[in-house]
Design goal:
The chain is of the alpha+beta class and 274 residues long. The chain is 19% helix and 18% strand. The chain has four helices and eight strands, in the order ββββαβββαβαα. α3 runs antiparallel to α4. The two termini are 14 Å apart.
Length: 274
C-alpha cells in the first residue's frame, strides 16, 4: 500500500532542518493536589493517515504553531476530551486511533478474548504549574480524521480551500479568522470509537482516491479560539514547525505508531492471519 501525497507549500521559517533529539521523561515525583488545586487537560495529534499529514493549529495574532489541546470538562473522559478539543480548536472531526503504544497500564481481565496489541493510551503526559497554588496535568493522545461515512452530512470537502485552510505567509499581514456563523451550531456529539476489528489498511481503503477530510468553520468556543487557523501539514514539516516543544515528539511518536501498526498488519497478512 502506498500513502498518497498532497500538495503543500512549505514555509521557510527555520533554516535548521536537522531532527531535534527526542525529549526524555522526567524523574518520578511525589505530589498531592486537592481537586480545587488541579486542572486536567488533554491534547491530540490528529493524523490523516492516507496522506501522511497531521493537523496543526496556527495562532493568527501571536504567530505560532501548536497542536489542539484544552481542559477536560467535568465528568468527561480524558480521551473523549482530547477528541472534542481537537474538533473545537481545529474544525476536524476525529477519533482516537489504537496503536502499538508502550505503556504500563494493565489489560482488562477478559480470559475469553485475546489481548489487543493496540491501545489509545496517552503517548506523553506533562505536569505544568498553572499558578502558585494550581497544578496542570496534560495528557497527549493520537487520533485520526474520521472516515467519509462518519462525517456529518452538513460538512463536505471544498475544491478551493478558504483562507483559514491556506498556509500563512510569514511576510504577509496576519490572516483574519473567519466570522462566526450566524446560526447556532448543533451541540458536539462524540464519534463512535475505532472498531476493534478494523485494520488500519482497511480503514484507509474506505477513502476514495484524493479524498480530503472536511474541515468545519466556526467550531471555536470563545474569542481566543476564533483566532486559531488549522491546516493538514506533512508529518516531517509539522515536526519542524513544532521544533523545541514536546508537541514535536507527540507527532513523532504518533506517526511511529501508525507505521508500526501498518507493519504489523502487513506481517499478519503475509502469514495468512490477515
Amino acid at each position: 500500500m502506498q500513502l498518497s501525497s498532497k500538495t503543500y507549500k512549505p514555509s521557510r521559517s527555520s533554516k535548521d532542518t536537522a531532527p531535534a533529539p527526542p525529549p526524555s521523561s522526567s524523574r518520578p515525583v511525589l505530589a498531592n493536589y486537592a481537586s480545587h488545586h488541579l486542572t486536567i487537560g488533554c491534547g491530540v495529534a490528529i493524523f490523516h493517515v492516507a496522506s501522511a499529514r497531521v493537523v496543526l493549529c496556527f495562532h493568527s495574532r501571536d504567530r505560532y504553531w501548536f497542536l489542539p489541546k484544552g481542559r477536560r470538562d467535568a465528568n468527561e473522559e480524558s480521551g473523549r476530551a482530547a477528541e472534542r478539543e481537537g474538533y473545537e480548536e481545529s474544525g476536524y472531526r476525529n477519533r482516537l486511533l489504537p496503536l502499538p503504544i508502550r505503556h504500563r497500564q494493565p489489560r482488562a481481565h477478559a480470559p475469553a478474548a485475546a489481548p489487543s496489541p493496540f491501545s489509545t493510551e496517552p503517548v506523553w503526559t506533562q505536569l505544568i504549574p498553572q499558578s502558585a497554588t494550581t497544578q496542570y496535568i496534560l495528557f497527549w493522545y493520537v487520533a485520526e480524521t474520521l472516515p467519509p461515512g462518519l462525517q456529518p452530512p452538513t460538512t463536505s470537502p471544498t475544491s478551493t480551500p478558504p483562507l483559514s485552510q491556506q498556509p500563512p505567509n510569514p511576510a504577509a499581514s496576519p490572516p483574519q479568522p473567519s466570522p462566526a456563523p450566524a446560526l447556532t451550531k448543533p451541540p458536539y456529539v462524540p464519534p463512535p470509537p475505532y472498531p476493534p476489528t478494523l485494520s488500519l489498511r482497511t480503514r484507509i481503503a474506505q477513502e476514495p482516491p484524493g479524498y480530503e477530510p472536511p474541515k468545519e468553520e466556526g467550531t471555536g468556543v470563545d474569542a481566543e479560539e476564533a483566532l486559531y487557523l488549522s491546516f493538514l501539514v506533512p508529518v516531517a514539516e509539522a515536526r519542524e514547525k513544532l521544533r523545541g516543544s514536546l508537541m514535536a515528539d507527540v507527532v513523532a511518536k504518533g506517526w511511529e505508531g501508525v507505521l508500526a501498526r501498518l507493519g504489523m498488519e502487513g506481517e499478519e497478512g503475509e502469514g495468512g492471519g490477515g
